[in-house]
Specification:
The structure holds two protein chains of two kinds.
Chain A (H helix, E strand, L loop, with lengths): L4 H8 L14 E8 L4 E9 L5 E9 L2 H14 L4 H4 L4 H8 L6 H22 L2
Antiparallel strand pairs in A: 1-2, 2-3
Chain B lengths: L2 H4 L10 H14 L10 H22 L1 H11 L14 H17 L5 H29 L2 H32 L1
Helix pairs in contact in B: 2-3, 3-4, 4-7, 5-6, 5-7, 6-7
Classes of the chains: A alpha+beta, B mainly alpha.
Pfam family, one (chain B): HSCB_C
Function (chain B): Co-chaperone involved in the maturation of iron-sulfur cluster-containing proteins. Seems to help targeting proteins to be folded toward HscA.
Subunit structure (chain B): Interacts with HscA and stimulates its ATPase activity.
Chain lengths: 127, 174
């Protein structure tokens, strides 16, 4: 199966790979996995006092499409408010990366990862 | 289609694989397309279809995870094509750590020691989960079936890890 140029670009030069310090109170983490392919995705956001996502990092074990989807999401969420970031849809990711139908679940995983990170932040900051 | 019925074996997780293999050969013989060469077009097509069903059924029944999934599907719990993300954070953290351990193997001065360690961890946890799966399926109640579905999801991650580990071992040998 041929990957699109954008997937290959993100796969070869993934943006924002890594992790923030676990004990940083401004950091929240979303962990999601896809049993069907065994992919595991961790997405972290660093949120400013006024609720803006200042930085994001990810670590994904999975196929090229899963890595590209999470890499793209970390780029997209930077500078967004939590509510804006929560509006990111898997269909937007799939369209941007030109994912074929069999790889749509990778974009679902990335959407669920950012949602999980936002939920983690909100649960820890009581909003 | 009920694969257990097709193979005339009890619809349960704990199956006698030798019996399954014998039944497979019998069925394959009975429905071999050659037996229907003189039959009508319709009979030939049905035989081809049945031969395909028999192969699918055998493929599913002999593998524990696919067998468990089929059993659950017959009980109304379908998980084979689900696209829902798995969100058990503690479990996924542990998966991440195992993936990191696997990632260290190729750069290690003693890769085989790390392979042994990973292999041991994966096997041990897989065996624990397989036992829990057998227990949950044995109960044959909806609540335990849902638990079984969750155990299958976890086991899939371990089967994937094992596959990754095999790839690393191959890479090491090359």
């Amino acid at each position: 199966m041929a990957y699109s140029e954008k997937v290959i670009d993100h796969y070869e030069n993934p943006r924002n790979v890594g992790a923030f310090a676990k004990d940083d109170p401004t950091v929240a983490t979303g962990m999601v996995g896809a049993p069907a392919c065994g992919d595991v995705m961790k997405l972290q956001i660093k949120v400013s006092a006024d609720g803006i996502i200042e930085d994001a990092k990810f670590k994904t074990y999975g196929c090229g499409s899963a890595i590209a989807s999470s890499s793209l999401v970390t780029e997209w969420v930077k500078g967004k408010s939590l509510d804006e970031a929560a509006l990111i849809k898997n269909t937007d990711i799939a369209q941007e990366l030109a994912l074929p139908p069999v790889k749509i679940h990778c974009s679902i995983l990335a959407e669920d990862a950012i949602k999980a990170a936002i939920a983690d932040y909100k649960s820890r900051h009581g909003s | 289609m009920n694969y257990f019925q097709l193979f005339q074996v009890p619809a349960q997780f704990d199956l006698d694989l030798t019996e399954l293999g014998t039944r497979y050969l019998e069925l394959q013989r009975n429905f071999h397309p050659d037996n229907f060469a003189a039959g009508s077009e319709r009979d030939r097509l049905l035989a081809v279809q049945q031969a395909a069903n028999i192969n699918d059924a055998y493929h599913s029944l002999k593998q524990p995870l696919l067998r468990a999934e089929h059993l659950l599907a017959l009980r109304g719990v379908k998980i084979s094509h689900e696209q829902r993300s798995f969100t058990d954070t503690g479990f996924l953290m542990q998966q991440m750590e195992l993936r990191e351990l696997l990632g260290d193997i190729l750069h290690s001065s003693d890769p085989y020691a790390l392979i042994d360690e990973a292999e041991q961890q994966i096997q041990q946890q897989k065996n624990v989960l397989l036992k829990l799966l057998a227990q949950a399926l044995e109960a044959n109640h909806h609540e335990q079936d849902l638990q079984a579905a969750d155990i299958i999801r976890k086991l899939k991650f371990f089967f994937k890890l094992q596959h990754e580990l095999e790839l690393i071992e191959q890479q090491l040998q090359d």
